[in-house]
Amino acid sequence: YSNIEYPLSDSLESYKKFHKSTRNFALYVSKKGALLDTEGNYFSQEEFFKPTSSDEIPEDDIDKNRDFLIKKNIWKKFLTFLNKNFFHSKLNGIILVVDTVLFLNNPKEYSKNLIRYLTKRVNECEKTLNLKLPIYIVFSKLDLMEGMKEYFDIFDKKISDKILGLSFDKILSEEFLNNEFKELSDSLLCSLMSKNSHIYNMENKNKSYLFLKQFDNLFALAKTFILEVQEENKLKNNSYLRGVYFVSAYQENIPRNFLLDAICEKYNCKKVLSKSNIIHNKQSYFVKSLLEDLIFTDYSLSAMKSYSKKLSFLIIILIISFGTYAISSYFISKNNKEFEKSQNTLRSLQLLLKDQDYQNLNIKQKADFLIELRNILNTYPELWQDNNIFQYLNLNLSYKGFKEAKQLYYKLNEDVLKNTLLKEMEYTLLTDTNKENLIKTLYMYRSLFKQKYFNKEILKIWINENWNTLSKYSISKDDFLEGVDELKQFNLKSFTEDENSI
Q: Which of 206, 246, 336, 388 shows the greatest Cβ crowding within 10 Å of its Cβ?
């Protein structure tokens, strides 16, 4: 009823139906923060261990202390779970919710136990999570103090979204708390006096005034409780008190005048009977702003306790930062180099192709042109290799802009081979008298037109054996054989088999 939206509530409720182990922990995730509500039995787990002697330990009698051992182990597992991720924020604060009725009605031992349990749980959180946390003391169920409804009815409804309590930013002293609580009490009383004319019922006026007196009594007890918490906590823990606050989650109760009850107990008088009418008012007081405007915004107050952990965290951040800088610098430099490389290659190609009439070149000139084109494209060895994923990781991709130039090279290479190799094969078939060489030449010649029989290695052997007929073109044997290696597929549409040669 606090008007805080919890988008995951429905899905978590359905999850709990099928995972019973989660019913002891309630998770509330709002748009501004998250609350993890643990069952009270885990907070006060020591109550399940009742030794019969001072030297007894829980493990001495597992059956007898089963509940305690289960609660203890679940709590440890829970803290271990929170500590799983090094970078996870884990916890930003600890809220101790004190039942106001139990706090007022129970003897001093009750508050001492609360302090003892709180100190132990905070110590366990600090050791496991290595954190120093703010501690919030919240007194709940104010609605069970008679007169609360009548008092806050004199205010606007927006009062329920405010914060009622004190926040601390230093070590507490009794004098400081006396002054702060007195100021808060005077403020509440002045508000009642200023709006007294708005209350037309004498009974409601009495209830409102007596509510403030009960509140003063609660302030006095809360002050002592807070000082004792601080004293006990500072001996064992580094976490600190952030504030004390008062709330009412919802009203469905029979309120009582605890101040009057205390007087009756002191003088052995019979307590006044409660009225049978139950108050139903599904509205929370002082919860929304306490969570959203204070506790959720205090997340920066939690801090790592261990300097070694802080140092390791700083080193990791520095390594990540340096690594990011180094990788970014590498890729920026790589990008600039690749761009400059591509521009130089493009200019070289433009100079080579400028005013070039390829069709009017002789075979020697065409071969020289082809070699020069090959040398320019050799700037990118990746052009002659198969694609692989490392090219993308290393940003070796600028070569893709010259794939058309590579296709031009293949086309011209085939043209040179056709105007040299084919012609010499036809001439050999017409003039050679060596039958063995004729058979080899005929096979190679026809395989060029029926390329399922074509084999580069056999062709290179034929070229080596007949190089004397090809050397007249003034092309080096190595360049010629390299051209055969780079031969992809002949396009012989403009050529036909010479029947006379065959």
A: 246
Q: How far is CA 33 from CA 83, 92, 295, 460, in A?
A: 19, 10, 9, 76
What single-letter amino acid sits at 403? K
Closest CA to 258 of 124, 403, 100, 475: 100
End-to-end CA distance of the chain: 100
Helix then strand then coil, % of the chain, to nearest 5:
65, 10, 25
Amino acid in position 70:
I
Burial class (CB in 10 A: 0-12, 13-18, 19+), 250: middle
Q: Which tokens is 160 given?
A: 């329920």
The mean per-residue pLDDT over the stretch 173-199 comes to 91
CA 52 to chain centre: 49
Tokens of 71: 């609660």
- Is 344 a residue whose pLDDT tops 60? yes
Model confidence pLDDT, tens digit, residues 371-411: 888 888 888 877 777 777 666 666 677 778 888 888 887 78
Q: Please enumerate in sequence order all residues whose Cβ is within 8 A of that of 308, keeping only pairs 6 or more positions apart, or say none.
A: none
What is the bridge-based pairing of β-strands 279-281 and 251-253? antiparallel
Which two structure tokens, joined as six digits, stand for 207? 């209830």
CB-CB contact of 258 with 217 (8 Å): yes
pLDDT in tens, 63-77: 888 888 998 998 999
Percent of the chain, pLDDT > 90? 23
Q: In this structure, are strands 134-140 and 94-99 parallel, antiparallel, or unpaired?
A: parallel
Distance CA 282, CA 251 (A): 6
| 285 close to 158: Cβ distance less than 8 angstroms | no
Residue 156 C-alpha from the chain's centroid: 42
Pairwise pLDDT comparison (395 vs 200), residue with the higher score: 200
Q: Does residue 271 surpass a pLDDT of 80?
A: no
Angstrom distance (rounded) from CA 279 to CA 434: 121
Q: Lowest mean pLDDT of 141-155, 167-181, 254-268, 445-459, name the range.
A: 254-268
Task: Name which of 215, 105, 95 is nearest 152 in CA terms.
Answer: 215
Identify the three-state secondary structure at position 458.
helix
